[in-house]
Write a structure and sequence with these properties.
Lipoprotein, single chain, signal
């Protein structure tokens, strides 16, 4: 079972906070460097990675939110599939002789359809988690997506230790899955992976979590979205969270790509009654530039200022006034 560590839970909520508030994200640990176009893409049939997306109006800026959320849909699907497998409701396929010996650390489970199967290879020991799922014409029913047909593989690895309120973990995921949503017949594919590392000292109330990925691609029907060269860093120090993100978001819905950086990291005071960041700048650059400034970085006394091509298009004295849901998830 995957570790549900404190700082990773904080990370998930904090990233959702910034991405929802800013139409997609920021970047760079205070760096103003350009996001590079590394990480090899294999499903960009429309050439979206070769052109900048329009980013010249507030509507363009707001449109990036749905593009980012579509990339999250793929990871939600994998999580629900894994939940079905781990629920214990799938029957084991019994093999005899040489086939049984060849499976070694693996077990074959029957899926919901005839001749569909998923091989689960679990090499986990002690504080090391190492699990691989190999799907072969496998149909499973998920809570949010209905029945899906799956081929390909998913691997999750994690190792580390924790004691007396302190912990240190590293992990990675690799995706190479194709399939379809059975009810609609819509095909999908997910390729790529991510890595993360974390340290947390409860006594000192300090910790750091870093999540990175060279490339993560998701194709659903004719829609395509990818994250390239992503780096998300969360630091917690007492009552303050500091969040920096950078990545390139590529999307068919945007007809191009947008680069996200954070000239000034997002800082959130957990003891402050307001959930608005006390400082931070998110910069989004495509064919045009959007900056969302928070707290002291607005330079105006407002909580939030939105600028498009250096022109202020929105200013909010409070986060409540902006209508932005600063905490879409819950700790």
């Amino acid at each position: 079972m995957k570790q549900q560590t404190f700082i990773k839970s904080v990370m998930v909520t904090s990233v959702a906070l910034v991405l929802s508030a800013c139409g997609g994200g920021g970047g760079g640990g205070g760096s103003d460097r350009e996001v590079s176009s590394g990480g090899s893409l294999s499903m960009d049939d429309g050439g979206y990675s070769t052109r900048k997306a329009s980013l010249n109006t507030q509507q363009d800026f707001e449109g990036t939110t749905s593009a980012y959320q579509s990339s999250e849909e793929a990871l939600d699907l994998v999580t629900e599939v894994e939940d079905v497998i781990n629920s214990g409701g799938l029957e084991e396929i019994v093999h005899d002789g040489a086939t049984a010996q060849a499976l070694d650390d693996s077990v074959d489970l029957a899926c919901e359809n005839e001749n569909g199967s998923v091989k689960v290879t679990d090499k986990s020991v002690s504080s090391v988690i190492d699990v691989r799922y190999d799907f072969s014409n496998c149909r499973l029913t998920t809570v949010s997506f209905g029945q899906v047909a799956l081929n390909g593989s998913y691997t999750y690895k994690e190792s580390g230790s924790s004691s007396s309120g302190s912990e240190s973990w590293t992990g990675s995921e690799t995706f190479n899955i194709s399939g379809s949503f059975v009810a609609s017949g819509t095909p999908f594919a997910l390729k790529g992976g991510d890595r993360w590392s974390e340290t947390f000292d409860a006594a000192a109330e300090q910790g750091t979590l870093t999540l990175s990925s060279d490339v993560l691609e998701f194709k659903k029907g004719t829609s395509y979205v990818a994250l390239q060269n992503s780096l998300i860093t969360l630091g917690i120090d007492g009552n303050q969270l500091a969040l920096s993100t950078e990545f390139r978001l590529i999307s068919s819905a945007m007809n191009g790509y947008v680069d996200y950086t954070t000239p000034s990291p997002m800082v959130i005071d957990l003891f402050q009654e307001s959930t608005c960041p006390v400082q931070g700048i998110n910069r989004m650059e495509g064919d045009g530039v959007v900056e969302v400034r928070y707290g002291v970085d607005t330079g105006t006394g407002a909580d939030i200022v939105v600028e498009v091509n250096n022109n202020t298009v929105a200013s909010y004295e409070t986060c409540d006034e902006s209508g932005i849901n600063m905490f879409p998830g819950a700790l």
